[in-house]
Amino acid sequence: MRIKIFIAAFMFILLISCATDYKRGPEGGPNDKVRPTIESASIQNGSLNMDKNSSVEIKFSEFIDVNSAKNSVVISPRSASKKAKIYWYDKSCEIKFRDIGEDQTVVITVNPSLKDTQGNMLSGSYSLSFSTGSSLDRKFISGRLNGAISRNNIETVNYAKVKINLYAAGNDTIDVTKDEPEYSSGLSEVLGFELKNIGSGRYRLLAFNDINNDQKPQPGLEMIGFSHDLIDLSERDSIDLKITLGLTDTESPFIKNTSVAGEDILKIELSEDIKKSEKYIDSCFVNGQDEMFVEYSSQADRKAVYAKIKPFKIDDLIKVKLSYVEDYFGNLIKEGLRVKTHTVSDTVSAQSFKVGGKFPGKISSDQVLTFATNSFVNDSLNFKLLELKDSLLIDLNKNISIEPYKVSINLSDNGVRSGSYEFRIEKADSTAFAAKITIEDPLGSGSVSGTISGVSVENCILICKNIKGTSKSVNISSIDYKIDLDPGKYILAMFADRDSNGVFSVDHRSYISEKAQFYADTVNIRKNWETSDINFEFK
């Protein structure tokens, strides 16, 4: 009896093992970067007189990741989507329809968010159309995503995450967070999109960075862009659009958290970045007593402000009240959210001074030396350079920016020449930190120039993003512009700051967006050279 049970159990485990291997598919090797493609479909694109209960199979070249497949296939229009069911297999999917309408054009779209089991995505959207009647709907929308601007920074967007939704524009207001689109598509690898075989009618188009992969735009969290005007495909057959993604923000900032950051330092963390201001904190109370304080902020972390009050004790009750701070979109903190109470549960002991992160081993003599520390207040420190060749000691005491946990020193303002040095930080007549550093010849600068047309130039903002990561935004106030930049390769974009708030603004509720243009090519800035004719033409 025991032998029979053992054999039965062994056969069961063997069957499960075989089934598991079959479903998983081949590993493909650690360096499998081959993108999946559409190998075939069971019907021809544009098929006519299809049965109302048709079934369509699409085969792929690779084993498909089930998790990415969930929202990767879209059936349009909405009336056909409600009568379709999608079945996924290892290297194919089957769409079964039930009782589609008469003379109904159906579009099946596979978005590039679909991945194979190695994480490789499709290079672009794939669409397949058919009709239950004798003709297909022939309306067509094409376009391109210019890029994405978050506030006044150029953002990199994963093409496979961007969805293009087309909503029927009836008499009712469209709520893009709730309403289902009539048609949907994705982007190609070169940021182009197409919506084919659309029915005649009036529409609104919205593009969004679908971070959650749920097919639903979430303004305020996900970047969005849209067609400014109603798209009327009643008389015309096609239209071409250019879309720029931006952020919608109508939410007021609030105090998210408070914590003790030092023996006498209270850190106030807000829900989002806030604008630079002369005063962030209105008052501080400790155990009901109004206390004097010094406030600090950091350019690197715009979500945090600090209050240096007095040494805290366990169970101290600290109440802080903020001034009327605002975020970059002009949303003021609400009256009832300006106050926060914090009970001290643990004090922070004093720490020996340290430089955090990686200290740079070399830097050009016309750059700014920036490094992090573990010290909140760095104003008691002295900074020096010891020239190794001649043992000459240089005091660095000009144009020093001291922020919480951060120090920046402009080397050129301190007369530093190229050479080999030892950088020293002195505190109370002792060396708290020392490191070798090479000061290289000046990096120099180049310039970019051009003209602006099609918009009022009083409030234009030019964004220059170095492909190595740094970014610079400049207000432009004339038709002809010229600005200096460090040498390097840049992506350039410009927007007309209609609201004069310094950020690129979009409002999905009223379909109003500030105009933006991206320069088509990467711009190479060379030392002592003007790169001209970088023109921006708004339409």
CATH topology of the largest domain: Immunoglobulin-like
| CATH-scheme architecture of the largest domain | Sandwich
Helix content: under 10%
Total helix count? 3
Instruction: Give the CA-based shape.
Output: elongated
What is the strand content? 35-45%
Structural class: mainly beta
Gap between N and C termini, in Å?
85 Å
Oligomer: single chain
Describe the overall structure.
The chain is mainly beta. It has four domains: about 40-245, Sandwich (Immunoglobulin-like); about 255-345, Immunoglobulin-like, CATH 2.60.40.1220; about 355-440, Sandwich (Immunoglobulin-like), CATH 2.60.40.10; about 445-535, Immunoglobulin-like. Helix content is about 5%, strand content about 45%. The chain has three helices and 44 strands. Strands 10, 11, 13, 14 and 15 form a five-stranded antiparallel beta sheet that branches. Strand 39 (about 505) and strand 40 form a beta hairpin. The relative contact order is 0.09.
Based on the model shown, name its key terms.
mainly beta; disordered N terminus; 5-stranded mixed β-sheet; Immunoglobulin-like; 5-stranded antiparallel β-sheet; 4 domains; 3 helices
Topology record:
Blueprint (H helix, E strand, L loop, with lengths): L1 H23 L13 E4 L13 E6 L5 H4 L3 E4 L1 H4 L2 E5 L3 E6 L7 E6 L15 E6 L7 E12 L2 E3 L6 E7 L14 E4 L5 E7 L3 E8 L14 E3 L4 E2 L5 E8 L9 E8 L2 E6 L10 E6 L2 E3 L2 E4 L6 E5 L8 E6 L16 E5 L11 E2 L5 E3 L3 E6 L8 E6 L4 E5 L3 E4 L2 E5 L8 E9 L2 E11 L5 E8 L6 E7 L4 E6 L3 E6 L2 E9 L9 E2 L4 E2 L2 E3 L4 E3 L4 E2 L4 E2 L2
Parallel strand pairs: 8-16, 26-33, 34-43, 34-44
Antiparallel strand pairs: 1-2, 2-5, 3-6, 4-5, 6-7, 8-9, 8-12, 10-11, 10-13, 13-14, 13-15, 17-18, 18-22, 19-20, 19-23, 21-22, 23-24, 25-27, 27-31, 28-29, 28-32, 30-31, 32-33, 34-37, 35-36, 35-38, 38-41, 38-42, 39-40
